[in-house]
Amino acid sequence: MDRDNILLTPGPLTTTLRTKLAMLKDWGSWDADFNALTADLRRRLLDVIHAADSHVVVPLQGSGTFSVEAAVATVVPRDAHLLVLDNGAYCQRMGKLATLMGRRTTVHSRAEDQPISPAELEGLLRADPSISHVGLIHCETGTGVVNPLAEIAEVCERLGRGLIVDAMSSFGALPIDARTIRFDALVAASGKCLEGVPGMGFVFIRRDLVDACAGNSHSLAMDLQDQHAYMQRTGQWRFTPPTHVVAALAEAMRQFAEEGGQPARLARYQDNCRTLVDGLGALGLRTFLAPELVSPIIVTFHAPADARYDFRAFYAAVKAQGYLLYPGKLTQVETFRVGCIGAIGRLEMQQAVDAVGRTLAAMGLPAGRA
Ligand SMILES: *Cc1c(COP(=O)(O)O)cnc(C)c1O
């Protein structure tokens, strides 16, 4: 088969040939052409969530987690108190990275199959005035559940608390409007719904906050205020930029605009998701989340309840047909995940469903009846 494997994973994901070809050029990091590329990319990123008036966007080298860590380090003062309501693996990661950098952190674990409750958050914030900031994962990629960003932001604004949003797996696909949703920082990355390649993140920080963040970060490399100040002064990244990743993201964003921006991307992912859920459903595979909570980003499925099922063998057999699935991230239940995002459409998703069907049949799991 001369086609690349189709990545049904939440980043890295399948990219277009145009995006891949954009990496076949070397850029000088001091050169005016590259500075212009970075500036144009930052403008386009601000436009995705209508944040040009309210926020700056600061790119950062590294995977998405580096940017989450940098956002917390930069925006949450050292004597502040961060609350994370935890409904999945990425919530736990935010709690851990904040704890490791010495921020006072409170993590409350909640059910993984339910969105975070704004009413519960309000109660917790009222009960503890020392909580200065809330950390929220918009789409919790561990399960695919979407947390109510607008409602949580409204609670934080009303009670005068800061909000850090990890919108890594939702940015570009789910609607986010900085004109109506108030947040201090919002984090995303190149290799998710914008369909670039992995290697850089970016953090939106409130314009009226960014200068006051000077001195918050315990880490030089993670200091987004410093990165921003340097970029404003010189047009350059502080340290070696991931030039090919930036070029690929700029090209991916041109295609994002051509496709019709966020609404068009969401529509395609919703179509992918329906094809997937209907197709695997017909094979007898059930979603972990209730149908109304399934999001068009990533879907968690219960593994077939059959002693002969083994994820590694299942994965290898589906891969041999050209599709890469994603393991589950739940400790209590045996699951696997399938991403709906990336440069794929209904045809690729239907082919993946067919590959799963053939695999289950070959493993002797009759039509996959779970
Ligand atoms: C992908 C992702 C991240 C970042 O993960 P990396 O492996 O560091 O790229 C963070 N949060 C969420 C919700 C994600 O989906």
TrEMBL record:
Indicate yes or no for the key word Magnesium. no
Task: Identify the cofactor(s).
Answer: pyridoxal 5'-phosphate
State the source organism's domain of life.
Answer: Bacteria
GO molecular function per UniProt: 2-aminoethylphosphonate-pyruvate transaminase activity
**What is catalysed by this protein?**
(2-aminoethyl)phosphonate + pyruvate = phosphonoacetaldehyde + L-alanine
Q: What is its EC number?
A: 2.6.1.37
- Aminotransferase class V domain segment(s): 33-299
Q: Which InterPro entries match?
A: Aminotrans_V_dom (IPR000192), NH2EtPonate_pyrv_transaminase (IPR012703), PyrdxlP-dep_Trfase (IPR015424), PyrdxlP-dep_Trfase_major (IPR015421), PyrdxlP-dep_Trfase_small (IPR015422), SP_NH2Trfase/AEP_transaminase (IPR024169)
Query: Could you tell me which residues carry N6-(pyridoxal phosphate)lysine?
Result: K192
Q: Where does substrate bind?
A: R337
The record's keywords, sorted A to Z, are: Aminotransferase, Pyridoxal phosphate, Pyruvate, Transferase
Q: Does the keyword Transferase apply?
A: yes
* A biological process from GO: organic phosphonate catabolic process
Q: Which family does it belong to?
A: Belongs to the class-V pyridoxal-phosphate-dependent aminotransferase family. PhnW subfamily.
HAMAP family given in the database record: PhnW_aminotrans_5
Q: How does it assemble?
A: Homodimer.
- Could you tell me what this protein does? Involved in phosphonate degradation.
PANTHER family reported for this sequence: 2-AMINOETHYLPHOSPHONATE--PYRUVATE TRANSAMINASE
Q: What is this protein called?
A: 2-aminoethylphosphonate--pyruvate transaminase
Write the gene name: phnW
